Amino acid sequence: MRxxxxxxxxxxxxxxxxxxxxxxxxxxxxxxxxxxGAIDSDQxxxxxxxxxxxxxxxxxxxxGVSLDFSQTACNAWAGRRRRVRxxxxxxxxxxxxxxxxxxxxxxxxxxxxxxxx
Length: 117
Description:
By secondary structure, the protein is mainly α. The chain has one domain (2-103). Helices cover 62% and strands 0% of the residues. It is built from five helices and no strands. The chain has helices spanning 2-12, 23-36, 44-59, 63-78, 88-102. Helix 1 packs antiparallel against helix 2, helix 3 (44-59) packs antiparallel against helix 4 and helix 3 (44-59) runs parallel beside helix 5 (88-102). The radius of gyration is 13 Å and the shape is globular. The N and C termini lie far apart (32 Å). Mean pLDDT is 75; it is low at 81-86 and 111-117.
């Protein structure tokens, strides 16, 4: 059922989270991503939406929320033992900028950096 809700959200993703013209749509999607539990999805297109929302939050300059959102996604994805595992590249993309701006280290955000291979 959740995947059915996630597909329209992913297709509504403007895919340009750094563009201020996309921010109203990203803001709408953010609430739906949270409410639907999209962060827990294994689907690549839903994970891309989650990553885009994290980038939007960062560029919107809500760094604390961006870090919390990104950390929640990283922990959910890293904890999965199913088909899709989070790779170090995804982790860096989600946590890199907000962690740096907030002034924390990788260990302080509580995520172990995995090898990309």
